[in-house]
TrEMBL record:
GO molecular function annotations of the record: RNA-directed DNA polymerase activity
The Reverse transcriptase domain, residue ranges: 1-275
Signal peptide region: none
Keywords: Nucleotidyltransferase, RNA-directed DNA polymerase, Transferase
Descriptive protein name: Reverse transcriptase domain-containing protein
Keyword Nucleotidyltransferase: yes
Record InterPro entries: DNA/RNA_pol_sf (IPR043502), GrpII_Intron_Splice-Mob/Def (IPR051083), RT_dom (IPR000477)
Keyword hit for Transcription regulation: no
Annotated source species: Kurthia populi
């Protein structure tokens, strides 16, 4: 795999090009125009973009402090959100440099962050692979389901910086990349940074190629640190798991305890759905039980946010419809019907309370 793709190329100027920065600002503000920081930047957008351009060109740019907070869904995580100006810079960096360069080296079946990919494309590809495996081997098919333990929190800065030097030799660009990578202490990269998403996509890229080209796994899908290998030989998948653990050890990462080999006929949890194949070859894709419980908790939380005036009904409708559009990619007719009934009951009560 050729990774020395930009030898002798000056890519840094693409980050601070005024048009690129302005487009990055326009993209970064989407869905965030209600925030105070976005409003401040927007009030003097041309001046703010020009200031960023000058700072980047003269290498006087410095990142602001992170806003640190915790989320509990889908699991407990500490989120570090950067200042809006830094989101603009990272958007320009990712859209104009990282994505076009990294894209050339990624395998087809790596689905996170990329245009035309995403969760639903990964799910569709997984279904296609399950059906292909069934046609060739029947129900005697095994799935090695893996994910990396505390992936974002475990990424080593020096390993990422060495990886960046395989792709770039522009000193100014490396200065900016190093600043972003080292913007937090110790191990880990902030999950809220757009650049972190791309670092994380690329970090396991050599593992992807090894699985496809050396282990010769035809049916393989990865979405960030979640990935599956489909094969008819369970023993061979055991060997593959050992090879994967060896690769991850070199990156100072490890698989979590939930990484196991499962028979497809009993079902596999992947990207929010539990999927299995019946004796007749029908593929069934159900929303995972923990996801069902999670959405019920969310509906109750939405009610509190609505009562306290922290969210409008329109914002809550948008979030709920987004969830429905996701679960409709599976066999979820009765689940959606049940949740719709609960949703309308909750908000009918609140509308009545508001009227009183």
């Amino acid at each position: 795999m050729d990774t020395d793709l930009t030898s002798g190329m000056d890519l840094y100027h693409k980050v601070y090009d005024f048009r690129n920065l302005y487009n990055a600002y326009m993209a970064a503000r989407k869905g965030k125009r209600w925030k105070t920081a976005t409003n401040r930047f927007e009030a003097n957008a041309l001046e703010c973009v020009a200031t960023l351009q000058k700072q980047l060109r003269e290498m006087t740019y410095r990142m602001g402090a992170y806003n640190v907070f915790e989320i509990t869904e889908p699991k407990k995580r500490t989120i570090k959100s950067t200042a809006f100006k830094d989101k603009v810079v990272q958007r320009s960096l990712c859209d104009n440099v990282l994505e076009p360069v990294f894209e050339r080296s990624l395998i087809y079946d790596n689905y996170a962050c990329r245009h035309g990919k995403g969760t639903h494309a990964a799910l569709k590809r997984t279904e296609d692979f399950y059906r292909a495996a069934y046609r060739k081997h029947g129900r005697d098919v095994w799935v090695l389901k893996c994910d990396v333990e505390k992936y974002f929190d475990s990424i080593d800065h020096e390993i990422v910086k060495r990886l960046m030097r395989k792709f770039f030799n522009d000193d100014r660009l490396l200065w900016l990349l190093d600043m972003i990578i080292d913007s937090t202490d110790g191990k880990g990269v902030p999950i809220g940074n757009q650049s972190s998403q791309w670092f994380s996509v690329l970090l396991l890229n050599e593992m992807d190629h090894y699985i496809k080209e050396k282990l010769r796994i035809k049916w393989y899908v990865r979405y960030m640190d979640d990935f599956i290998l489909v094969h008819h030989d369970k023993e061979y998948l055991r060997q593959c798991k050992k090879e994967i653990e060896w690769i991850l050890d070199g990156l100072e990462l490890k698989l979590n305890y939930k990484s196991h080999i499962f028979p497809l006929k009993h079902g596999v949890d992947f990207l929010g759905f539990h999927t299995y194949i019946t004796e007749t070859g029908k593929l069934i894709k159900k929303v995972r039980h923990d996801s069902n419980k999670r959405v019920k908790r969310k509906l109750k939380k939405f009610r509190e946010l609505y009562r306290n005036g922290e969210r409008t009904k329109q914002q809550i409708d948008q979030a709920y419809n987004s969830w429905k559009n996701h679960v409709r990619h599976g066999d979820s007719f009765y689940l959606v019907k049940e949740m719709d009934k609960l949703y309308h009951k909750i908000f009918e009560e609140d509308v009545t309370c508001h009227k009183d």
